Amino acid sequence: MPDWVIIVLIVTNIVTLAALYFATRRMLKLRRQKRRAFAFRSYPIRQVKLEAVDPCFAITEHGPAPASTVAFIGGEGVVASLSDRETWVIAGLAKSARRVFEFGTCSGKTAHVMALNTPDDAEIHTLTIHPDDLANLEFGSSDDRHHQGQAATEAAFTTFYYQGHPTEVKIQQIFSDSKAYDETPLKGGIDLVFIDGAHTSSYVESDTAKAMVMLSERGVVLWHDYKPDAPDVFNFLNALAKELALIHIKDTDIVMYRRG
Ligand SMILES: C[S@@+](CC[C@H](N)C(=O)[O-])C[C@H]1O[C@@H](n2cnc3c(N)ncnc32)[C@H](O)[C@@H]1O
């Protein structure tokens, strides 16, 4: 084979490898930014359109029914914010909830939004780990390491979005490791539970067991971060869906269970 052919082959291979390298880097970056992009795994939990989730989201000839109107704040600049669609879903469901429990307060924006939309006499209990208590987190040996770190990073808040707003009177802030929290005084009394605390197997399992104790007869549980990027939550919910009638709300990372 002539020398020039060998040189052309070498150069072509180098260019191809470089192109592959940059394309992969770009794809991984986009994946991080877009969270769900390039997630090739299938989502086993049955996906349901929002209008079938609750009558308040019914679609009319003009679009979503007026009953889906909520008081709303976008997620710009908010740490670990839900998407705007997810905030709308939670705010809509909160309109018919008298008692709400949130695992994972973070900035307190979702607690504030839920308080804005619940009836006047509603109570919102929201639980978070205090930054001074991070050493007390009780991760299991098989808990996803990346999300162990994230739980600590997101526990940066000791003041919250709702403070100084009229919603504050409805909100009871609880500082506790969720595993150490005693849920029994709220047994059977919570209409809407939102599970968005530590995204690791042992915590999502423990938070779910506590949610089921607190849930009222027709109560609703919502889990955030049903996506392959949060593998412990994703795998836990896929297994739970074999026992409970869970649904995945379309175009969100929310899974829902309604009792009764
Ligand atoms: C994803 S953020 C919650 C976002 C919030 N639900 C919202 O919608 O704005 C997770 C929160 O859970 C808290 N957290 C993590 N592990 C926890 C634990 N073991 N017990 C209590 N809170 C925990 C973190 O401190 C953080 O505030």
Identify the CATH homologous superfamily of the largest domain.
Vaccinia Virus protein VP39
The succession of helices and strands, N to C, reads HEEEHEHEHEEHEHEE
Query: Shape, please?
Result: globular
The percent range for helix content is 25-40%
Largest sheet: 8 strands, mixed
Rg result: 22 Å
- Largest sheet: spatial strand order: 1-9-10-8-7-4-5-6
CATH class of the largest domain: Alpha Beta
Question: Structural class, from helix and strand content?
Answer: alpha/beta
CATH architecture of the largest domain: 3-Layer(aba) Sandwich
- Bound small molecules, deduplicated: S-adenosylmethionine
Uncertain runs with pLDDT below 50, 5 residues or more?
none
Total helical segments: 6
Distance from N terminus to C terminus (CA atoms, Å) equals 76 Å
The fraction of residues assigned to DSSP E strands is 15-25%
